[in-house]
Amino acid sequence: MFMLVSFVSLFFVTLIFVLLFFIKLIQVNVSSLRFMKSNVIMMSCSVFFIYLFFSYFRARPHVQTQTSWNAPIMWELMFDNNLYDRKHKEANTTVALTVFAVGRYLEAYLKTFLTSAEEHFMLGLPVTYFVFTDLPEQVPEITLAPQRNIIIVKVEKHTRWQDISMMRMKTISEVIDTVLQHKFTYVFCFDVDQIFKGRFGSEALGESVALLHAHYYKLPKYRFTYDRNPESKAYMTEGDYYYHAAIFGGTCEKVKALADYCYVNIMEDKLKNVEALWHDESHLNKYFWLNKPTKLLSPEYCWDEYISNTEDILVKRLVWAPKDYEKLRTR
Ligand SMILES: *[C@@H]1O[C@H](CO)[C@@H](O)[C@H](O)[C@H]1NC(C)=O
Fold first, then answer.
1. Could you give the CA distance from residue 237 to residue 233 in angstroms, rounded to a whole number?
2. Of 174, 281, 305, 326, which one is the catalytic site residue?
3. Whose CA is nearest to atom 6 of ligand 1?
4. pLDDT tens, 212-224?
5. Which residue from 59, 131, 294, 317 puts its CA 20 to 30 A from 43's CA?
6. Which residue is closest in CA terms to ligand 1's atom 12?
7. pTM (2 decimals)?
8. Would you indicate the residue range of the signal peptide (predicted)?
């Protein structure tokens, strides 16, 4: 409502100045200095309001679109899809996507994740999915578009889901070292319990990419659930944002640095018998506090449909799949 009122009033102010300017222009008298001066003022005002009008019209005035260190925050309307796609096609960009489907997560989520990714993830670019699972024979057959591949890697199953989620960092680091780094420009790491719903395209690619957590992007910093235990390596007292570990990406080099950092610190915690509040996510938040990401994805890139206030979400590009922790995490 507020947005509409301010938009309409801005529109009329701009219109009035433009009209006034043209009225002046018609009766301009070159020999009169007085007229010249008022024309210049009128023109400056018009240009100023036209500028305001268009910046208002194009941008996203109610969300933050840039960080204090000048990294863009990707919100719908802030970028041109075609420009990004053309740039990445010309550069022969290749993308690796890693996803872990261990235990019952495979049966519950993998098929929907992969089929929806084929409809929305980096269309037009060569993409290879790396599926890490303890049940390779149960990975469903998916029809893939040309230039898209799937590679299945067997991993061992840890009994606690917290360990599965933490050992992920070690596996990611290893696969970057052994396979990815010479073949792929970028690597993106995804949780499997998500469904693509809209374009998740080349605009999301960058050197070091973090995702704003849908539950925290609007909250004041003191509400962020950083690890507050000084015994843990993930301990932090202040930060920039609360990032969601469901998606992170970047160049192979940067993602490997992130994964190594998290893995080493998780192991140091384990030696002290400490576990960070939100496991690998706590360590990831610490890493991105010390090593600022070069691009942030807005919660449009990973939305929780249970959040009722959707006024900032113009496109749902990916949503959380409905969760059933009781069934998935026991057994
Ligand atoms: C991309 O690939 C094409 C065809 O292989 C090649 O001609 C072109 O030079 C490559 N472009 C870049 C930027 O590497």
1. 12
2. 281
3. 92
4. 999 988 888 877 7
5. 59
6. 91
7. 0.80
8. none
